[in-house]
Specification:
This protein is an all-alpha fold and 173 residues long. It is 84% helix and 0% strand. It has 4 helices and no strands. Helix 1 packs antiparallel against helix 2 and helix 3 packs antiparallel against helix 4. The radius of gyration is 19 Å and the shape is elongated.
């Protein structure tokens, strides 16, 4: 029998996944490489500044959506996990499904940790360095911070794809 609440939970879980992991894939595969290529071929600082501002605006719009998605994923994931006949409790690792879900949750925790580092440490440091440069002051750490951001986004994207693989493995059982 169809359970409307379970169907809604699945829909919202999938939408939140698309927003979070899809946004990371968009940044990693399309936006960052293209912006980096444009910056490398820059003609003037004004053009570079425009590209960096675009990336900053994208980031400011994406992170609140990613955070909301995380909340939705937690609520809907707990609901779905509780409904699963394979669920044996929080650390019940008695079957392949439970082990796949456990590994998935470890990867999600890694993604949350990386997101927290970015939002509460790296992004404020990037903003400070960009403001210094905008005011004509020296900001030697700016490029290093941008490289670190790119690496963390790539790592988060890889973890996101791994989460999808774990989900597929659990769903196939």
């Amino acid at each position: 029998m169809l359970d409307p609440l379970h169907i809604l939970s699945l829909i919202f879980h999938l939408l939140a996944t698309v927003i979070w992991v899809g946004g990371l894939l968009l940044m990693t595969i399309l936006l960052l490489p293209e912006i980096q290529a444009l910056i490398a071929a820059r003609k003037d600082d004004n053009e570079t500044s425009t590209l960096v501002r675009f990336l900053d605006r994208f980031r400011r719009r994406f992170y609140p959506l990613a955070n909301l998605s995380l909340g939705v994923l937690i609520v809907t994931g707990i609901y779905q996990m509780e409904r699963s006949p394979y669920y044996d409790g929080v650390l019940g690792l008695n079957n392949d499904w439970s082990r796949a879900i456990f590994v998935k949750h470890l990867a999600v925790l890694g993604m949350v940790g990386i997101g927290a580092i970015m939002q509460f440490s790296l992004i404020p440091a990037l903003d400070r360095a960009a403001l210094l440069r905008q005011r004509g002051k020296d900001a030697p750490e700016l490029e290093r911070l941008r490289v670190r951001e790119r690496h963390l986004i790539q790592l988060n994207t890889a973890l996101g794809v791994f989460v999808l693989i774990c989900t597929a493995a659990a769903s196939s059982l």
